[in-house]
Amino acid sequence: MNNVPNPRLNLIEPRWLTIALLMLALVGVTTQALALETTPLEIMLDPTRFTGQMVTVHGTLTNLLPRGQMGGPGAVFDVMERGAFVRVLSLTPPPCSPGSPVTVNGRFLTTQSSGGQTLTNVIEAVSISCR
Question: Rounded distance, CA 29 to CA 32, Å?
Fold first, then answer.
């Protein structure tokens, strides 16, 4: 057997590594792009339809609390639209204040335990933006 390194393979490896990293980045962007656009009311009416799904909701930020009161860092708040709301758990506080228009992208769960409490109809936020 010939154990001499092939210089062509060494040139190809960085290119494949770059391609692999770009593909992983695109998968992350695609996951956010494929999130279901929905409303708090649609979630309230049929929460099992959205269980485990990536969702995007728009509304007004209300009931902002530090998550430390419920266990862990970050914040807990509601996104309200037309009288319906969905609870949001976030590892970081939202960049806007209560009463502000907000968009949340994250994974929806029908139940989530946090700080010894079980919450229902919760979005684990991946991104939060103020509109």
Answer: 5
CATH 2.40.50.140 fits 36-130, yes or no: yes
Domain boundaries, the chain: 36-130
What is the pTM (predicted TM-score) of this model?
0.71
Q: Spell out the residues 6+ positions from residue 118 whose beta carbon is closer than 8 angstroms to its own.
A: 111, 112
Q: Which two tokens stand for residue 57?
A: 């909701």
pLDDT tens string 78-127? 999 999 999 999 998 999 999 999 999 999 999 887 767 788 899 999 99
Closest-CA residue to 89 (of 60, 44, 119, 116): 119
DSSP 69: G
In terms of Cα–Cα distance, which of 58, 64, 66, 63 is closest to 101?
Answer: 58
